[in-house]
Amino acid sequence: MESGNKKSSGFVTKKQKELLVEFMNKHPDLLSRKFSNSFTWKDSRMLWEKAAAILNAVPGSVKNWEQWRKTWKDLQSRAKTKQGAFRKDLKRTGGGSRVPSPDLDPTEQAVLDTIPIVSIEGHNVLESDVVLFIDDENPSEATIKPELPLLLEFPFPTIALPSSSQDEYPVKSIPVPSTSQEKSTREIPTRISRKSAGKVLEHILGNAQKLGDIQERHYQTIEGIEERKAVALERLAAAKEQENTIRNRQASAMEKIAEILLSFISS
């Protein structure tokens, strides 16, 4: 098992990045970063150790498994940041598709392609920007529910954003959440400007990003708990082994004492 104190050395080469992308695509469980009964934190660590061995075997940077895991997170974060054209296209058209950014090289585009696109209220959004729903009975198993309206958590109405080029377009009337029963029965106007729709969508994406940060912190918390649990189990196993060794030595000592006593009595 690799030491967690191993220092990183050298720069990550293009070849290492390509190998890392290839490895992640071959292991969808590791790519999804979701633990379950069939894929535990221990399984995740074993795969990262395997990845580290592969990456360290080629010229370039030398890191332990935790450092390579962070490298992967950094690659994804950098690719998403440089994908500005995608966000601009969303705000401009009220939907659109993911347009490759001219700033992305082939490897960065390959990294970005590992982040799934899910549909929320008819809009394409990166899965990493979607709220993570946690099972209270089993917090280590987290799933994304892309079809559940994200707006249920926020005080603004759900709207449909068509791809029409008109300045104004009809929108289905939906009750606006309110603190009073009287106001809650009001409905939004049946027409809304594209500028207003863009602001609402921008608000949605902003809150989705915040929720994505919460998702990341939750994942790191679960990961830390699992890691501490694994260390505790290893120490417990070592303590039991030491206890068995002491008991065996005590048994051997008692046998020798018994032999000496029998020999003394016989003589």
UniProtKB/TrEMBL annotation:
Region Disordered, annotated ranges: 75-107, 167-189
Cell cycle recorded as keyword: no
InterPro entries the UniProt entry points to: Myb_DNA-bind_5
Protein name: Regulatory protein zeste
Subunit structure: Self-associates forming complexes of several hundred monomers.
Entry's Gene Ontology cellular component terms: nucleus
Protein role: Involved in transvection phenomena (= synapsis-dependent gene expression), where the synaptic pairing of chromosomes carrying genes with which zeste interacts influences the expression of these genes. Zeste binds to DNA and stimulates transcription from a nearby promoter.
Keywords per UniProt: Transcription, Transcription regulation
Domain Myb/SANT-like DNA-binding residue range list: 13-82
